[in-house]
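S., here's the first fold you wanted:
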Amino acid sequence: MLGLDSRRSIGNKASSCSELDRVGRRFLAYVFDRTICGRIIQLFGGEKGVDDLKRVIRYIFLGVGIALLVSGCSSAAASKNANEVEVALKEYSIGTGDIRLTQTDTAAKVTIKNQGMNVHNFVIPELGIDSGLIQPGESITLELNVKEEKVVQAKCTLPGHTEAGMIAKVMIGQ
């Protein structure tokens, strides 16, 4: 199997290891030649191409990391008020599931964007907040006047939406 002679004695470990190594390399070469990675490595020029490919992948990861770092810094710097947040409504989720607001003397502005294909609403019963119906593609800005720390639940109250997972935790001052 795979070019090994099963009748051969494995008395000499060095030769058997080199035989296994050779067979293993042939097998990997066979697999690599028939995959996307193999085609990419061929484009970069064989064995030397592997090093080039690794270098390219490192640069890609480095570039993505820098982009994420810069985008995180710029969005934090561009925000004038920590209490201005955007929340996306989709089938069947509200944002990332957690909405954080800092406790300040001014009202928090929460912009609700319906990015889904169905009509949704945004309700926080404990605070008496109800956005009304928000059509797909539309958005509405709500102002929340909450002075004390608390954790409440936001949800879409349309039939079946809450049960399908359209709920979020709103953390104020925590």
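And the second, which I think is the more interesting of the pair:
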Amino acid sequence: MPLGLSVLLFRPKWLDFVGVIDKIAGMSKEPAIFISKDDAMECAWKPADPLGEALHSLRMSGTFYSRSELTAPWGMDLPPMDGTLMFHTVTAGSCWVDVPGTQSRLLRAGDFALIPHGDGHIIKSDSQAEAIPLFDVPRTVWGDRYEHIRFGGGGAETGLVCGAVHFEHPTAVRLIQMLPKIITIDASTPGSDWILTTVRLMISEAQEMRPGGDTVIQRVSDILVIQAIRSWLDHDPKAKTGWLGALQDEKIGHAIMLVHRDPIEPWTVATLAERVGMSRSSFAAKFMELVGEGPMQYVRQWRMQVAVTWLKETDASVGEMAERLGYQSEAAFNRAFKNFVGETPGAVRRRAA
């Protein structure tokens, strides 16, 4: 397959617009990558700051929602869901959320809880309530993405809207890995009244399922998740350290953004340092200090994350991926991939099929 055609076939949409103008103008040796008007507009509105771009990558997929009307005593035991982010909003009454390794949290009407890592957890009316395995709870299924749960002992009423969503973008995966086991937003916090308003829109769309309803629901979930993460970023000192802290550094954050936007570029420590206006030695030292690994180690790991996305989302051959990512042979790429991911490219593709 010609190289230019392979780029057109398997360059992911989130790489959109990178280097297009230079390629069309003949300033680059890489083949031109032509994109749609919609993709160009998407890129035009992409945030210019690295942290904003990381949040921009949080576009969810495979969204599933549940609305619950519960009466005390009640409890639900949710199983772990790998690669899934879960959230709960209390629309009426109150409940407790127990995530292993954290303190129990009391949620009241208008509160929001985000469980970023898909950990199994329990939601219940009070500390003494028995928790039933989630899939044993009676429910009414309304379509592929929505269900209604109604059960309990007849006491105090609680209303919940819960969601489970997936994310694939490599930046989103990295960002989610940095989050704590649970993030909560208290309805009493000034400016948090948007939560119930947003959830009411989600409920309305899920019940009526008008044309475009799936899209509205998915975008609403994006808003809820991003707002919760923004709240954590604003208030938790841990958000200023490590990779997240590096994203907020003017020089190192810019370098990380360059690698994310164009992972197939033959980056070196020298070229990255030059692009951000630092000396090679100063750049390498500061990158190591903030990120916890060297620039080229980060580039190699990022390319492997990109390769995982390509395997899941495209039909490109492993050989084509190896060539695009700068490996001398498919065998060398396979070895590097297995060392990083823990399984072969073929295994990742079969699992995603």
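Why I say that: The chain has three domains: 1-46, 61-236, 249-353. The longest helix spans residues 213-235.

Talk tomorrow,
H.
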